[in-house]
Structures are given as structure tokens and as C-alpha cells.
């Protein structure tokens, strides 16, 4: 009888473990800089003597804030994959995984080393028990226009999930709208074309690849870089395993990831190859399993325009002490062993 009870317990435990979702999140953390000057970058705003007054106490608070957000997104289990943008260097990433609420989870990470003038980059963190790193590299965006400001590389990571299947992950922070939306749009169209050609190359050489793209696109789901160049459709449309689908496309009725002058919009996207929306695939998800994480502690009242807005770290040069000017996004995948 005792043996039967033990066996039943073990079977139940394995079943529960297998049903835990493979949770993925992306978060623009709003200028995670350390307090030291990088002689190769223009990071002067984020130094103790700068107009922002970016000192060690504020830095430590920021690190703790980001760890708190990631832990909240994970709920009972930390996210398997975390894409971040606006992180300065390995120092801030080391501090995040070692000295924030994430320290007990032993995250590993890789990141880009981009030519961005301010020195901000993108990174991917993963749980060792959920994802096995195979390779990673940066995709450099080299503009032909000499007056075009250098931007962030796209991070391409390949790894294995628990089923033994490969997963290709792209983490992006596309060129900003600095100088005007239309004036800066060619840079985002070019970046999207480089990303799309890389995705197409993977689809050409592999059978049934699993591809996940996440990032701050500095464009909305209906803009040309996403809708036309990437061809990322709404998951509500018929699913083709060889096309891209934007899990954020239908999430913007009353909320977004960024608030500009009282108007919400979705700049942060989670895009998957259609095969990941097929229930028969070993790794799969659905539109309903993706969402914007609008935890109350990430928001504050908007006294000027009404409603709520992200509780950010800085408003202009004024220190507010919040989390970020963006909200994180997340999606759960099911993986069959």
C-alpha cells in the first residue's frame, strides 16, 4: 500500500512539473546604467555628478526594482526566458542576477556589445533547467547613410528546450523615433528587413523551426516595419506555420506598453513563427496566453492627461524613482516531452 501511495505521489509530481508553463517575458527597463563612465560611450547623463544625479543608491534601487518586476511576472516560477533592452553592460547584468530578487534563481545571460552611442544594449537571460544555450551572436545593423546614428545590434540566440527541440530567439531594440516618426522610419524598415532575412534563412535550412522574436520595435503592430516588412499578422487570422504572427497585435484596446501624452500604444512586441501556434507542435502557445503585465505597482496616476501611466524612473531629468517608462509583456508556452 505504501509503495502504491509513493508511486501515485511521484506520478502526480511529474505530471504537475510537466504542466508548468515555459514563460517568456520582455522588458524595456529604461536606462539601466551603472555609475561609472565608459570612455567609449556617451553615458555622461548617468553619473553621480550629472544633471540626473545617478548615484549608487539610485542604481541599487533600480536593480532591485527590475528584479521585483521579473519575479512578479514569474509568479510561482521564475520566467524561463527574459529579454531586456536598455541595459548598459555586463556589470549591470551581473548585479541584476546576483544582487536583486533574482539571485536565488541562478540565471545565465548573454548580451550584445553594440555601437549605440549611449551604450545601451539588449540581453537574454535564461533558466538553466529550462533552456540549454547552443549559440548566440549579434546582428549588426550597418546603415548606408553616413549621418544615421549607430543603433543596437539584434541578439540571436539558439538553444534547446526540455523536449529537445531547438528554439531561435531574437531580442531587438529597433532604431528610435528620434528626429520624427517619418524621418526615422527608414532605419526601422531596414532593421526589420535584416531581421526578416535572417528568419527566412533559418526557415530555408531547417524543417519546422521554432522562432520567437521579442523587443521594443519603436513601432506599433500596424506600422510598416512590423505589418509589411516582417509580415507579422494577428493571431486571430488563419494560421500558416511558415508566417509570422504578432501576439501583441490585438492587445491594445484599453492598454499598451507605453503611454505618450495620455495615449496608450504597444511598442513592445512578441512575435512567433506560425508553427508555434499549432497545437500539434511540441512547443506551442496561443493568443490568449500572451499579455501585457499591468501590475498596479508599475503604474501611477496621470495628473495631466487622466487615467494611469507607467511609473517610470525619470521624467525628463527629474528623478521619480519608479520602475520603467514601459510595461513588460509575457507569453506562456506548453512543451510536450
Describe the 3D structure.
This protein is an alpha+beta fold and 337 residues long. It has a single domain, classed as 4-Layer Sandwich (Deoxyribonuclease I, Chain A). It is 23% helix and 28% strand. The chain contains 5 helices and 19 strands. The chain has helices at 2-18, 56-74, 90-99, 181-205, 224-229, and strands at residues 22-32, 81-87, 108-111, 121-126, 132-139, 154-160, 166-173, 211-216, 244-246, 258-260, 263-265, 268-273, 283-284, 290-292, 299-301, 308-310, 314-315, 318-319, 329-335. Strands 1, 2, 3, 4, 13, 14 and 19 form a 7-stranded mixed sheet that branches. Strands 5-6-7-8-12-9 form a 6-stranded mixed sheet. A hairpin with a 6-residue loop joins strand 15 and strand 16 (308-310). It is globular, with a radius of gyration of 20 Å. It starts with a helix and ends with a strand.
Main attributes of the structure:
337 residues, alpha+beta, 19 strands, 23% helix
What's the helix and strand layout?
Blueprint: H1 2-18, E1 22-32, H2 56-74, E2 81-87, H3 90-99, E3 108-111, E4 121-126, E5 132-139, E6 154-160, E7 166-173, H4 181-205, E8 211-216, H5 224-229, E9 244-246, E10 258-260, E11 263-265, E12 268-273, E13 283-284, E14 290-292, E15 299-301, E16 308-310, E17 314-315, E18 318-319, E19 329-335
Unreliable stretches covering 5 or more consecutive residues: 1-18
Shape: globular
- The name of the CATH superfamily reads Endonuclease/exonuclease/phosphatase
Characterize the biggest β-sheet.
7 strands, mixed
CATH architecture level-2 label: 4-Layer Sandwich
The number of helical elements comes to 5
CATH class: Alpha Beta
Number of domains: 1
- What is the strand content? 25-35%
The succession of helices and strands, N to C, reads: HEHEHEEEEEHEHEEEEEEEEEEE
Structural class: alpha+beta
Strand tally: 19
Oligomer: single chain
Mean pLDDT: 93
Spatial separation of the terminal alpha carbons:
30 Å
CATH T-level fold name: Deoxyribonuclease I, Chain A
The amount of helix comes to: 10-25%
